[in-house]
Amino acid sequence: MTTIIDGKALAKKINAQTKELVAQLKEKQNIIPGIAVVIAGDDAASLIYTRNKHNKAIKLGINSVLKKFPADVSQDELLAEIEKLNNDDTIDAILVQQPLPPQLDPEVITNAILPAKDVDGLNPLNLGKLFANQHGNYPVACTPRGIMRMLAEYSIDLQGKNAVIAGRSILVGKPLLALLNNANATVTMAGRSTSDLSALTKTADILIVATGVPNLIKATDVKSGAVVIDVGINRLSDGKLTGDVDFAAVKTKAQAITPVPGGVGPMTIATLMEQTVDLAQWRHHG
């Protein structure tokens, strides 16, 4: 019997814990965690994601500030706003919603965020600590952190297992490679230039797919008993949401699989909120 990994239920549990912790921090230590969500442009999906994050933070008792800029905002203007937020003592976490308009350099914008407020874990200092498997407190990209939490919650053993990641993005693939490697899995990463993706995915005990290609992975691409994590979320012409994995077909072979929607997506936002509170505590207590 295939286990359906219920990200929605797990996210609900994490959010309840976060809400309780926020209430305790306010009551006992007068700490109110704060997040600033910055968006440039009017990309419809980005606006929805940004609003969802903002509203979720408020529901959990987190101070949330939404900073919206027009699509033609200059890089200097956005950098000036980030500098203000870096110096704002009421803000513990800064998130810049991607994708950014073409005149903005994502690398420059990301690097401008103070590492201690980098809730996406994308500043080179935080990424370097992750890849070096350093001890201590530092943020990790929210989607990979959420995926690792799901695997742990469902008691999926990673030690010595073959893990294959399809997708090399800095938001998902690369941080996940480090996290899985740090958990003693044997990790392979595939990208657009991978010549025979199917041959590679069929070796995976743990398969994570983050390509942005709807239904890319079929049942024939997965070995029996694999754990399949689908990070993709794609809207089809009929309006339905689908992942990068053919869920109906692959679930007949997988030991465990995440659905779309209701899998990785809710976990990303729950982890973002959890990490915002972490940043607040680290900033106040070291």
From TrEMBL:
A GO cellular component annotation in the UniProt record: cytosol
Domain Tetrahydrofolate dehydrogenase/cyclohydrolase catalytic residues, every copy: 5-120
EC number of the protein: 1.5.1.5, 3.5.4.9
Residues binding NADP(+), per UniProt: 167-169, 233
Domain of life: Bacteria
UniProt keyword terms in alphabetical order: Amino-acid biosynthesis, Histidine biosynthesis, Hydrolase, Methionine biosynthesis, Multifunctional enzyme, NADP, One-carbon metabolism, Oxidoreductase, Purine biosynthesis
An example Gene Ontology biological process: tetrahydrofolate interconversion
InterPro entries tied to this protein: Aminoacid_DH-like_N_sf, NAD(P)-bd_dom_sf, THF_DH/CycHdrlase, THF_DH/CycHdrlase_cat_dom, THF_DH/CycHdrlase_CS, THF_DH/CycHdrlase_NAD-bd_dom
Gene3D superfamilies: Leucine Dehydrogenase, chain A, domain 1 (3.40.50.10860), NAD(P)-binding Rossmann-like Domain (3.40.50.720)
UniProt catalytic activity: (6R)-5,10-methenyltetrahydrofolate + H2O = (6R)-10-formyltetrahydrofolate + H(+); (6R)-5,10-methylene-5,6,7,8-tetrahydrofolate + NADP(+) = (6R)-5,10-methenyltetrahydrofolate + NADPH
GO MF, one example: methenyltetrahydrofolate cyclohydrolase activity
Subunit structure: Homodimer.
Protein name: Bifunctional protein FolD
Protein's organism: Limosilactobacillus reuteri (Lactobacillus reuteri)
